[in-house]
Amino acid sequence: MKQVIIVRSDLGMGRGKIAAQACHASIGSYKKTDPDKIREWEMEGSKKVVLSVPGLEELMEIYEAVRRTDISHYLVRDAGHTQIPAGTVTCLGIGPDTDERIDRITGELKLL
C-alpha cells in the first residue's frame, strides 16, 4: 500500500510551497479513501512517494486516468495567497491503494 503525490515542476514553487501543496494533496486524497484501505496502509507504515511531472498537461492526463478508476484522488488548486495565482493546479494526490494499482497509472514518473 502507498500514496503518491505528483507535483508540477514547471511552477517554480519554493521548497516550502511544494511541501504545503503536497500536504494538501495527501490529506485530500486520504479523506476520500475507504477506511479499510486506510487501516491497511497505516499498518504498513503509511508509505508516501512524491513524483514530478513537467507541466499541467501531463498532470491532467494522469488525473483523467485515475478518475476512470475507483482509486481515491485529490487535485490541488492553489488559493493564491503566496507564490502562484489563485486556481493554479499544483499537484495531485493518489491513494492510498495497492502499489500495483497506483503503479499502473504512475509507474513511469520520476521522483521529485
TrEMBL record:
Report the domain of life of the source organism.
Archaea
Asked if the keyword Hydrolase belongs to this entry, the reply reads yes
Hydrolase as a keyword of this entry, yes or no, is: yes
UniProt family annotation: Belongs to the PTH2 family.
Q: Which organism is it from?
A: Methanothermobacter wolfeii (Methanobacterium wolfei)
Task: Give one GO molecular function term.
Answer: peptidyl-tRNA hydrolase activity
This protein's name? Peptidyl-tRNA hydrolase
Enumerate the UniProt keywords alphabetically: Hydrolase
